[in-house]
Amino acid sequence: MVRWVDIALEEGVRFFVTSLGNPRWVVDRVRPLGGVVYHDVTELRWARKGADAGVDGLIAVNRRAGGHAGPRDVRALLDELAPVGLPVVCAGGIGDAQGFAEALAMGYAGAQLGTRFIATTECRASDAYKQAIVRSGEGDVVLTERLTGIPISVLNTPYVRRIGLRSSALARWLLRNKRTRYGMRSLYALRAGLMLKRASLDESRSDYWQAGKSVAAIDAVEPAGEIVRRFARVACAADAQ
Ligand SMILES: Cc1cc2nc3c(=O)[nH]c(=O)nc-3n(C[C@H](O)[C@H](O)[C@H](O)COP(=O)(O)O)c2cc1C
User: Are 170 and 129 in contact (CB under 8 A)?
Assistant: First the structure.
């Protein structure tokens, strides 16, 4: 990771997003070069840890997010993070320009979108994955612990129905235990890597597709630039009113 951050800096990248662990080492590398670090958080204690490490802003990952979702509702999370005094970006549940404008009106400084940008012409995800996002509604999105040990938001495919949503009592215990936690996470990461490799070799064999509740507002595969321009237009118009 240190090497990748150094290469990114060498190539001119000046905006970094950190998530798990303590982001101080990233801040220490990026700040002297005039870069900015925003930290993904799901609740106040992680925000305080990021603020203590010197991050420039927070990305509030709420319970509607794709990928590893948090436990909090979009507004409750903003209120909870306000005392930290850093700009807060909304992550989770935004699929259309209206949702983006609403997040800004609520007090968020910006938005981080994941699911929306999978259904773009530029994204190298399989067509089947993109079409599944376009077709799906909120009810097709579930949180499962069975893939990584912590809740991850995915489309409810036959594979996900087969493995289930809750980790076994033994897996949960091993993930909590200080001695076995690291080994368990490595095992999950290895399995996820193997699955991704298999899916990249034969895209029709994808076992699971990560997506958040924002699927409900996504109804077409579009170029990423068009999405960003439309979002900016609608947000500016809403601001002018
Ligand atoms: C396929 C996929 C992979 C993701 N991978 C990561 C990741 O590696 N690290 C991370 O911090 N967030 C990751 N996320 C979360 C996004 O950065 C973002 O917070 C989230 O997608 C926002 O919710 P949305 O999908 O409703 O827009 C991922 C999301 C998706 C959909």
Answer: no
Query: Which parts of the chain have pLDDT scores under 50?
Result: none
Ligand 1 pocket check for 113: Cβ under 6 Å: yes
Residue 114, ligand 1, Cβ within 6 A: yes
- How remote is the CA of residue 6 from the centroid of ligand 1, in Å? 23
38-85, pLDDT tens digit by residue?
999 999 999 999 999 999 999 999 999 998 899 999 999 999 999 999
Q: What spacing in Å lies between the alpha carbon of 240 and ligand 1's midpoint?
A: 31
CA distances from 150 to 69, 76, 174, 175, 198 (A): 9, 21, 12, 9, 22
Atom of ligand 1 nearest to the CA of 64: 26
Phi first, then psi: give them for residue 222, nearest 5 degrees: -135, 160
